[in-house]
Every structure is written in C-alpha cells, then in structure tokens.
Amino acid sequence: MSPFLDLPPLGAARFAAIEDRVAALLHTTADVIITQGEALLPLEAAIRGAAHPGGTALNIVTGPYGQTFGNWLRDCGAEVVDLAVPFDSAVTAEQVADALRAHPGIGFVSLVHAEAATGNTNPVAAIGAVVREHGALLMLDAVASVAAEPLLTDAWGVDLCVIGGQKAMGGPAGVSAVSVSDRAWERIAANPAAPRRSYLSLLDWKERWTDAGRTVLPHAPAQLEMLALEACLDRIAADGLDATVARHRAASDATRAGVRALGTLSPFVHADAHAAPVATTLRTPAGLDAAALVASLDPALPVQAGGGALAAEMLRVNHYGRAASLEVVQDCLTALGTALGTAPAAVDGARAAAAGAWEAAAAPAN
C-alpha cells in the first residue's frame, strides 16, 4: 500500500502554519487564505467579492488573463474601463495614472504581474503607488511571478495578491492562495453581492476560519496538495528566496541571449526590461508555423506553442521551477536549432551565448 494512503490528518495548526509561510513569501502581514483549487478560484473569488455592482473598475490587459478578469468584472455588474497594451510590451505607471485621471470613479484595479502566456511582466511597484494615491483597491495576479521575481505585497500597496504553486514555486496546480488587506476586507464586507455560503466566498473563510482563530478547518483540506505546497516552501527556504529569484532571471536572460545568437526566431517581447522571468516567448518568421515546430520537438522539453490566435506565430520556452536551469535552457536551444536546420556552429554559439548571459546574471553586483 502506498504510504500516501496512510498519512495522518493534516490539522488546523499545520494548515495555519503553511498560510503563515505563504504570507512571509509574499512579504505581507495581511490575512492569507489558502484555497483548495487552481488559482482561477481565488482570482474569481477576489473579483466577485471586491468588485461592487455599479462600481467602476480599471482592468489592465497585457495578456489573455486580463481579458478573463474583464469578463468577470462585467458579470459582477461593474462598469469596466479596459486599459489594453500590445502583448509584446508592458503597461506603464503613466498609462495607469492617465486612465485613473480620466475615470475618477475607479475603485478597483486588476493587474497581472507576469504574463506567462505572452512573456511580459509589469512594473507593479510603480503602478501600485498611483493606484494607492487614487484610493482604489489593487488586485494582483502573481501566479507566474511568485518566487520568480520580487513580490513585495505590502510595500507595493497590493490589496489582493493571488498566487499558485505550479510555476516558479515548482509545485502542484491544485492549491493556491490570496492575501487580503484590511482595506480589501472592508470593501468586500460592504458589497451586498459578495458571495456567501459559496466556494467563492472569502467572507466565509474569514468568518469561519481567520476570525475564529484558525483552530477548526471549515472543510477537509486537500492533503497531498498542501504537503506539496509545504515542500515547495521548504525548497525555496533551503535555496534562499533571493537565489531562487536570481535563477529565474538568469534563465530568462540566457534564453533571450541564446535565441538572438541562434537566429531565425526572435523574442516576442522586445525589451529585456519587459521580459518575464518564468517564460520566454518567441516569434517565428512568416511561413514558419510555431505549432508545427513545437510538435517536432521532444515533448519532454518545456516548449509549447502560443495559445489561440498566437499559436501559429509564437512559441514559449518555460523556464520555471526546476526548469530554471542553464542545462534546460541549452537543451531547448539545441532542439530548436536542430529542428530549424541551423548549422552546428551556430547552435554551439547560441549555447555559449546562453552560458555567458547566465554567468553575468548570476554574478554578484559590485
């Protein structure tokens, strides 16, 4: 019999201790609620709780998840102002400030930190400052950024910060979490349409778990997922959060340098400063189908075609979690170069460029 079938129950104290460790990872003193499901669960719960019917929300769209958030906000009865930028770039704090000035009634702002699907990342610190000055709540999707780049929830003024375990944390997709500031709790409590007696109800969690002293869990926890999340936190603690973040940035720099040296393909996100550390998206030239190229590769490699309309022209190298390594990056470059018929000398040059970028990123600052 598998030992996993004979595990002792995961009690409330251990569940609460894992929540506290997640709070430390997010650099927050706010309440953290671990939700038993993929990160879309707390993302939808945060929006349905904090977005008031008849209120005005700014939805920043830098990729497909922003489009999903807009749909939820409209379904909640909010008037939605979409601030959309090209998917190969990042939004700026100035653009956000302009939108807030143009629509002074905005009370809720939704933003994705890193867009793994499109490979860009947004300047949350600067955006958080202008949102807080305006007086709105800021909800941040940090699923693809947690443990891959700095995430200072409280210092940046993030009111609702949602994470998942499946990317840079190197864990399962079936467990996620949301931090909720005091301002966010007040806004949710004042929303007559906030879910209650529902799996989407953050207020139920607050009432039955957080405010009750976290001594009795409202339901049976997803034990294996919780243990996996705990193991992820153990590994990050052992490696060091700063080292984990640096490894992901080095993987991004190495991939971009290697692709540029390889030729044929080019980074989808033009500016290095806008590139997410969890995944590098690549644009294929006209006539080269990205999905067909990916289908020709070893499926064990962390390379996939873009989604939706981008499937034919974009592919993605995922370098997060255990895949954030120079070896994985070089293996992907070799496979892409071989599939493209690139001369062996050029492939070797791409691998060398990746190694140089990795070493430069990993070198301590003077």
Explain the overall architecture:
There is one protein chain. The model has no long low-confidence stretch (mean pLDDT 95). The strands form 3 sheets. Strands 1-9-8-7-4-2-3 form a 7-stranded mixed sheet, sandwiched between helices. With 366 residues, it is an alpha/beta fold. The protein has helices at residues 12-25, 40-50, 64-75, 93-102, 124-134, 182-189, 202-210, 223-239, 241-262, 290-295, 326-339, 344-362, and strands at 31-35, 56-61, 79-84, 106-112, 114-115, 120-121, 137-141, 160-164, 176-180, 266-267, 279-283, 303-305, 314-318. Helix 1 (12-25) packs across helix 8 (223-239) and helix 9 (241-262) runs parallel beside helix 11. It folds into 2 domains: 3-237, Aspartate Aminotransferase, domain 2; 241-362, Alpha-Beta Complex (Aspartate Aminotransferase, domain 1).
CATH overall fold name of the largest domain:
Aspartate Aminotransferase, domain 2
Outline the low-pLDDT stretches.
none
| Helicity level | 40-55%
Q: What can be said about the biggest beta sheet?
A: 7 strands, mixed
What is the total number of structural domains? 2
